[in-house]
């Protein structure tokens, strides 16, 4: 991303954060740049975070939401703590837990801070993946850290935690998936929403070259065509969204370096699907491209 496209005051805010976390550079995760046809996706996310806004990344599985979060972490030189939500995610997964430790022969109850508390106290970024998979009754604990207060009364210790100024929150959702629930409006209103679409065409070629071991230009062109055809079938309701996942496509490209492309598609994409008709639809598309 070209930071020169940002307003000067935003660039100053980025520099301030970079200077604050220069000593934590070795703890940054992710080494690959997030790529998108619409460069405003990254620019808008950077501006929102610079202004202290919470960001909600909305898009299908494998569209690069986590990759964007990692890119933002590297842009700001700011470490990131993560929560991967599921139907079992509870308060402890966010805030931490109590445990008994032995010190000098004496048993003592200690609190082990979770990702939310750590990010707040250190002024780091917090990434909440698939936030709409968490139990609705668990999420209200986040309300006070997502508004102007940036404060939390820890129900496990009764301590008040005030976030440092550089603390920021990025969340991601896959709408319409089994196990997910619509976000409460009060919670959603605390976020700036950024849509992350599937990448296609020349951008997808760059993603494959950047993130997979496949370098054969003809095969890459065929896999880009496969992705486009799969997306058409997704839109027509023939196959589920996960069949068009860029993550699955990268895995398939890696396999295609060492095996027949059709077999790679079977292992990396179609065999993940539940219904035989869906698997057959993917293999039929692939067979027309990889003869």
TrEMBL record:
<dbReference type="Pfam" id="PF07728">
    <property type="entry name" value="AAA_5"/>
</dbReference>
<dbReference type="InterPro" id="IPR011704">
    <property type="entry name" value="ATPase_dyneun-rel_AAA"/>
</dbReference>
<dbReference type="InterPro" id="IPR003593">
    <property type="entry name" value="AAA+_ATPase"/>
</dbReference>
<dbReference type="InterPro" id="IPR027417">
    <property type="entry name" value="P-loop_NTPase"/>
</dbReference>
<dbReference type="InterPro" id="IPR050764">
    <property type="entry name" value="CbbQ/NirQ/NorQ/GpvN"/>
</dbReference>
<feature type="domain" description="AAA+ ATPase">
    <location>
        <begin position="51"/>
        <end position="197"/>
    </location>
</feature>
<protein>
    <submittedName>
        <fullName>AAA family ATPase</fullName>
    </submittedName>
</protein>
<comment type="similarity">
    <text>Belongs to the CbbQ/NirQ/NorQ/GpvN family.</text>
</comment>
<dbReference type="InterPro" id="IPR001270">
    <property type="entry name" value="ClpA/B"/>
</dbReference>
């Amino acid at each position: 991303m070209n930071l020169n496209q940002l307003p000067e005051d935003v660039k100053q805010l980025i520099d301030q954060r970079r200077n604050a976390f220069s000593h934590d550079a070795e703890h940054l995760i992710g080494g690959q740049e997030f790529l998108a046809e619409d460069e405003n996706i990254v620019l808008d996310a950077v501006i929102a975070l610079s202004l202290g806004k919470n960001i909600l990344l909305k898009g299908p599985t494998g569209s690069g939401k986590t990759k964007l979060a990692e890119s933002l972490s590297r842009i700001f030189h700011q470490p990131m703590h993560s929560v991967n939500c599921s139907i079992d995610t509870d308060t402890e997964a966010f805030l931490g837990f109590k445990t008994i430790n032995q010190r000098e022969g004496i048993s003592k109850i200690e609190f082990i801070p979770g990702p939310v508390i750590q990010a707040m106290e250190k002024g780091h970024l917090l990434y909440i993946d698939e936030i709409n998979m968490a139990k609705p009754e668990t999420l209200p604990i986040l309300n006070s850290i997502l508004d102007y207060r940036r404060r939390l009364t820890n129900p496990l210790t009764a301590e008040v935690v005030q976030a440092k100024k550089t603390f920021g929150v990025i969340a991601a959702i896959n709408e319409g998936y089994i196990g997910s629930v619509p976000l409460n409006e009060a919670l959603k209103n605390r976020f700036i929403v950024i849509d992350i679409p599937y990448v296609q065409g020349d951008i997808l070629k760059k993603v494959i070259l950047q993130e997979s071991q496949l370098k054969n230009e003809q095969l890459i062109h065929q896999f880009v065509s496969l992705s486009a055809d799969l997306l058409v079938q997704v839109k027509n309701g023939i196959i589920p969204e996960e069949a068009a996942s860029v993550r699955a496509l990268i895995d398939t490209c890696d396999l295609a370096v060492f095996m027949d492309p059709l077999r790679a598609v079977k292992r990396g994409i179609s065999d993940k699907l539940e219904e035989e008709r869906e698997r057959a639809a993917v293999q039929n598309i692939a067979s027309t491209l990889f003869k």
